Queue: 4 jobs
Job 1
Amino acid sequence: MSLDGVFDEPAFVPYLVAGDPDRESSKAYVEALAEGGADVIELGLPFSEPIAEGPTIQSAIVRALQAGMTPDRYFTFVEELDIDVPVVCMTYYNLLYQYGDSDGPRSFVERAAEAGIAGFVVPDLPAEEAGPLREACDEFGLDLIFIVAPTTTDDRLATMREVTSGYVYVQARLGVTGARDDVSDQTGATLARVADWPVPKAVGFGIKTREHARDIVAGGADGIIVGSALVDIVARGASEDRSIDTVAQEVREKAAALKAGAIDGGRDRVDSTTD
Amino acid sequence: MTDSHDGKFGRYGGQYVPEALMPAIEELREAYERYVLDGADDFPTELRDRLADFGGRPTPLQYAEALSDRYDTNVYLKREDLLHGGAHKLNNALGQVLLAKYMGKDRIIAETGAGQHGTATAMAAAHLGMPCEVYMGETDMERQRPNVQRMRLNGATVTPVTTGRGTLKEAISETMRDWASNVEDTHYVIGSIVGPDPFPEMVRDFQSIIGEEAREQIREKTGGLPDSVVACAGGGSNTMGAFHEFRDDCAEPRSADDSSGQRPRDHVDLIAVEAGGSSLEVDEERGVAPNSATLSTGDEGVLHGARTKLLQDADGQILESHSVSAGLDYSGVGPELAHLVDTGRVQAANVDDDDALEAFHRVSRLEGIIPALETAHAFAYLEAHPDALGETTIVNVSGRGDKDLETVIEQTRDRDLDAAAALDDPTEGAEGER
């Protein structure tokens, strides 16, 4: 499933780790995201050394690995999901690189395409090293999404613009992933720097509430990416041994609130431009 | 500089880091080129002066009489254990902290396995008046308590890392996260020739003073070059430090079928000795390699910012490594060392935990030098391969073993090694017999 048309209205892009805390629950939670209004789902494929993640997502990755998630099981997991929403695979380069024979990331991309995956976010793969993966994505018709940080230099922006497709992931603040209580003022400045890129702009890192979602979209984003605030719900479910249905319901409600926030933000933006 | 103009060593190296860190490593490369390579603002002079006066360089190249007798060859010891702090780590730590100061950074972070790099960084930071935070795996904090205390005495904050098995691999990941959050005012002092470009090249340059001195000293003492240089290899910083200045001494490896027995003139064998741990076999089910022999058994992959050889499973998940020596206990290795092994310039060897422990005792008894457990691996190689050393060999004594006493005594007894007998007070036994 492709990403075409996904950002026609303000999009809600949630993230969960596949297989967290186990395969069965995780499937229910990912489907709950779709029912709650997800427009694209960034689905983490766990890697043992997730250097870009904060403690919340890192713990989710540990749970999923302990429950036996592997790249092959990940692809089957995606194939078995009962959803009508494109899935973007978020993982680290070593897993793509090691898959199949030693032909770089091509085998991985081929298998991902077969599983219906729409694209990739690979946080430890800079645009400069992305040639082989970009080539394989082009061959199989997948998107490759890059993350722009508040510290990204103008030179690097130009390089990234050349290789990004699908959407651009705008990192709202410095640091690693994790829910925060405020929205960083770095966001607007970074959004302005990619305003003329020919792809939608989705903002992530630290978005937790409906209000954050509204503010970010009203500030010019085409979508919001939310990970840790959702992973927190899964983590609490795992630690308190709550039923899958209860946790799924909470995930669904949280997703619906964040999607509503994005829509509110879109309306605020339209209102402000028509004033 | 060789092989590394683009941050690559053959197929290894590169910059595989989150976007937020890219500007920091670009800034670092500029500063490295400006101050270290081009010598702006007299950086090299200040570093040399501080290494001499604060660090105690040059360290001696000592003729080891007992080991020379034992192996019927001439064994020389490059005494990095006599450097301030008790290990080669200060060369790099002082270099990087000074560079951070030149760059206008106002906070230092580091990670440490055995504690030697953390200690050296804490000392350098105190010496240069910079606040310092050191991440250390919980397991390592437990087995290297004296170094934790030393870091704290030097004013550093030691932050335990509880993820994974609580060793160096996890501590590096945690320090990278801190760096990504505080990149504008913080410099990350990576402790080995690992990580994204320019770290592998820069750390090697800071450590290459070991080989530079050793080369000059051996010429003074013998009139020529050694036949071999032996160093232990975890990440590989003391290894490359000892090897770099000998890299062009016969860049072509000796042919394996050379039956003449003659060594080519000026050929220096470079031997990197890894931790074979308890076994070279991997337990994929448990995700554990009971060794840290990355050069000998690892596969190519991407970890902690570089493409290099790694201990990993078939899916690309990084395996937990093992060594009785915390300082060698790492699942990766420096990209330059991986390249030099691939191209035949460096030979990779490994020795197991038991042999390293026996070597620790042997060298302590024979030479009056208590070597770091890391270094004991290099000494164990001499015992196992005395015929490979040639007429003259240099062993890089990467550090001193005080930090390892607790581990060594416990492990020697638990494993019931021959050396265990020497740990008991002989007079006690004699008393009992009367």
Note: Chain B touches chain A at residues 14-20, 22-24, 26, 163-164, 169, 173, 176-177, 180-184, 287, 299-305, 310, 312, 314-318 (CB under 8 Å).
Job 2
Amino acid sequence: MNITVFRIDERLIHGQIVTAWIAYANANRIIVADDKAANDEFQKTLLQMATPKTIELQILGMDETIRTIKEDTSDTKTLLLVRGPKEALQMIEGGLDLKEINVGNINMKKGKTKILGNLWIDDEDIRNLNKIHEVGVALEVRTVPNERSQDVIKLISK
Amino acid sequence: MINILVVTHGKMAEGIIHSAKMFTSEADNVEFLCLMEDMGQDELSDLMNEKMKGLSNEEQFLIFCDIIGGTPFKISSKFSFNNDNVSVFYGVNLPILVHAILTRDGKCLSSLTSELVEVSHDSLGLSDI
């Protein structure tokens, strides 16, 4: 499997993914790696409705995602989506060889600090993002592909 | 009367209602919600809850949103999943919204929505000129 875009996005599949990221990733497949979504029939139906008909969608639990990606030796271009930094770190620690993460939306919640309009983080997020950075994975923020890319670590260490 | 709520990415919802009123004049029970860049799904969901509060079981709600799969669509769909009196129409444009506001009187939700699907086919195209 060829992961062409690995993205952190709390909204999982939504407008920006459908209109811009699928084309940018040249993806034939989307994998949503999320334990919550994988166990929720309503969420699954919604995500399937949100996905264009020409794109294959897999909604898998975290462990299952790691297993599936490791076992798949095909060249299928895939957009991999996780909900937050914690889940992204889980993918990396699970042994997936991914070099770059696109940080999309980490939204406002109580106790989070605003970095950018679409990027709100707390201490736990900072810890997880730093751990990802320490193992040599690049982290960039861009909500849509033609936006200017910014370095997440630089932004959060200010 | 069928209540109308328009929910979109950014200020389109506010703008399209403003534009629609040039055709319909002031209309009752037509509201909007805008999903702004710094809002999360939960926040939009809370705002929608607020709009739906006090809605009796007999009242019908038609939610218009912009694109299928978008966050406004997903949040709206959750409401329609939990409530038979709520329908979601995606791909809203001005002719469709105006048609809904002007013709909703005395109609049930399902007949209005199937009519809107018909109207939508005629609302997009290339000029012959």
Note: Chain A touches chain B through 22 residues (CB under 8 Å).
Job 3
Amino acid sequence: MARRLAYFIAGLIVWLLLSWTVNYQEIIAGAAVALLAAGMFGGYLPVEPKKLLNPVRWFWVLVYIPVFGWQCLKANIDVALRVLSPGLNLKPGIVKIKTSLKSEIARVFLANSITMTPGTLTVEIKDDTLYIHWIEIRSDDPEEMAKMIKGPFEFFLKRIFD
Amino acid sequence: MISVLALLFLWMGVGFVLLGALGLARFPDLYNRMQAATKCVTLGVCGIMIGIFLRSGFNPLGVKALICAAFILLTVPVSSHALARGSLIAGVKLWKGTVKDEFTKDRGAEPIIEEEK
């Protein structure tokens, strides 16, 4: 039930942001749609609702956003330079790394963040193993490789979701 | 001031989208192309969206652009992941310079790295 309530509130907030009015007709229509969506899909919400009320987690979300933005910008400049360099500097391969994150949603966010960082693209998650396509393999040691790929993300995601 | 910043974001976005398109043409195989398509294009589109938001401010258009940027950031990695995984399982070949492929090895399937001609 709490899951559905959280889903309903999130849905209503997105609806109100999209319409950007406080007209009562909009709110009633949004509530009806959010209620329908929450009834249908609320049970699939992958976050435990009581974790959503913890301010410490939200603080880490706020720290995570600029960290992610910076990594994202670095990734783009890296790929852009590769595109423009005459030899392309490619040495691609698919490697696997382990993660210590426990919850599924944290793993999904780690995979998404890895996809947005320089030269790495998550191909598959199987339990705690992530398969990653890396555009230029710079190391052979699994530990070092995992550190280079995961960057600072695991530290933050553990505090946000686990 | 803000309109200058908005233009800066718009041009940055357009530049990254252009580079992403160039990467699509230049990289040798599907998986490397996916890298260009996910990274450059995501940040490029987000830059354009933020530029639109800065130009129009807090009105329906600007806020919609921001929400659009957030959803693009959340969904593009997932779709690229699904495409890459599907291609690997379907046996789309990796470029001949590829060093290793642990995913196919762990699945126990035939290696799908292109052979040197």
Note: Chain B touches chain A through 46 residues (CB under 8 Å).
Job 4
Amino acid sequence: MKRTLISAAVLMVAMTGTAMAGTLETVKERGALQCGVTSGVPGFSVPDDKGNWKGLDVDVCRSVAAAVLGDATKVKFIPLNAKERFTALVSGEVDVLSRVTTWTQTRDTQLGINFAGVNYYDGQGFLVKKELGLTSVKDLDGATVCVQSGTTTELNMADYFRTHGISYTPVVFDTNDQAAQAFDSGRCDSFTTDLSQAAGLRTRMQDPSAVGALPEVISKEPLGPVVRQGDDTWFNIVKWSFNAMLNAEELGLTSANVDKMKAESTDPNVKRLLGLDGPKGKGLDLADDWAYQIVKQVGNYGESYERNVGKDSPLGLDRGLNALWSEGGLQYAPPMR
Amino acid sequence: MSNSGHKPDGGSAPQNAPPLNKPKFWNDPKKRSLLFQVLLLAALGFVFYTIIQNTLTNLEQRGMTTGFDFLSREAGFGIAMSLIDYTEASSYGMTFLVGLLNTILIAVMGIFAATILGFILGVARLSDNWLIAKFSALYIEVFRNIPLLLQIFFWYYAVLRTLPTPRQSLEFFGSFLNNRGLIMPAPVPEDGFGLVTIGFFAAIVASWLIARWSRKRQELTGQQFPVILTSIGLIIGVPLLLFLFSGLPLGLDHPELKGFNFKGGITVIPELIALWLALSIYTASFIAETVRAGILAVSHGQTEAATALGMSKAKTLRLIVVPQAMRVVIPPLTSQYLNLTKNSSLATAIGYPDLVNVFAGTTLNQTGQAIEVIAMTMAVYLTLSLLTSFFMNWYNARIQLTER
């Protein structure tokens, strides 16, 4: 609330200056990228025991920092709750919002923001205690459901229950973590959120094995990084930083082999991505090796996926929809040429 | 506009004085200060105009929608508790009303409980009974010095969350207590209940008339009449008698455990209970100190005089001390009421659907219209504060010492 108020005030003051400096210059001058993340969703953005932020969303921030500043560690992470996020972005408190945010028409067209891509294709589901023996969302008639406030989740649930004639009581919390805890302690019969986040939050519950997801996935949730509207250079940088990660995976470039490939590869696609040929950094106002820095310091999309939410992580999520298009998934980046 | 009467020297200027004696415009302090005030006002107005214009232009440039049209759009999200009919199909304007009413409900409940508890504790701290006085002092010092947010968390997480699940509810008098809240039977008025309502209001009017009559009689004859006891008897007795004679025209909608939770009855959600407990207990400790200060401000001579007249302790307190103490108590008490109302916005921390949670939270986030929503929310708190303040000032003026 306090942050919303401050942001609203900053918004009004910031807007009194008619021309704002470009975000790229601001970030370069500051020497650090300010990135808005969640206040803690395992696998997506969460600080480890040493205070380093880790996660799929965090890697998007790091790849932008690597591209712009040549150093993936120069990111200042700003935890935001769902209510604060857009105001914080529009008022200039953060340069990029990489915070499990669903791309919707209203958000894209009415909030003064642009979605720069989809780094996770998700869907909304329901967690319940297994002891209740439920098999479908339709069994939830009369249930109390814990949910985070100000999310598409809240709206999808209302729509779904309304169209299926199911009654329910929502209990709304500021953060997903609070909502999950409330469910865990028995305040609600069910907890609803995007399934990826549910998987992460489930690992923190008293007895994760006693909690299961109902089979229905009730919505499309394309999650991705967001920038302010009206700064095309910056929009392109964020968009292509993420595309570089996808293309790197497709070309088989990893943080481990990128140096070797840079020296030896004759594949024109690889040469273009690593800035040896083709458009290089022109048009993005970046150094020619911007994509090389991303692959070297952050890794390709597949690497990021596996270490944060995939097989190598406690979440253990299948690639599913998030496999590359060449592997039967939806992840598809335009070519770099 | 005549200026002659306002000369600083106060002397009456001679009529038809030569114009030379009249001070120059810029030498006249009255006109000069007026000029500066007008200039300042104009400058301020210009600043505000610029800010608003710039904001609007920039909002438009960034493709952000402005205006209050969003209030009539469908909200599409559910709210756990509302005093008026609300569904997902209601408009954002309705979410504002639901939040507003929930805020007013918690404020009124909190003020009511905090005042009663605060007065008891304030008087108790001055009691001759060592145990009562020390208990009250301990209460005040403990609850006054713990941040309110922690107290809210304490009641919500440590106390109410540990209640049993609906299936193992604690049951008493047809009501159930569990971690989903307090579920009570709901009264359902049947034919003939209107008579009881009429009787209730008639009793109130009668009590008021008796009070007037008794005051007049006391002024004339000095004889007293037990007004309070009679009033209580009337207000409770008349409706009760009518209720019995008209054949108990009130059904009860008993809650029943069906599926996940209880169906029927009235549910008081745990968020409301936690917030109410925390706000009342916290504010009561401040009110208690205010009351103690007020009582101590009444000269001891007043009590001695009352004792000399042979008045009982209770009567002295009720007729001599408290009325005089109220003059000192009301202004700080008003501040406490305002604080309580504003503090109720901490509801958002535990998910009680108040104005800040529902409107400045979810609605703001779904529509993205930060400036409009925050402005409306601030206007509500300002209005509530001004209304409370206005009422309390009116009451204060009424009970001020009147000299006859």
Note: Chain A has a mean pLDDT of 89.
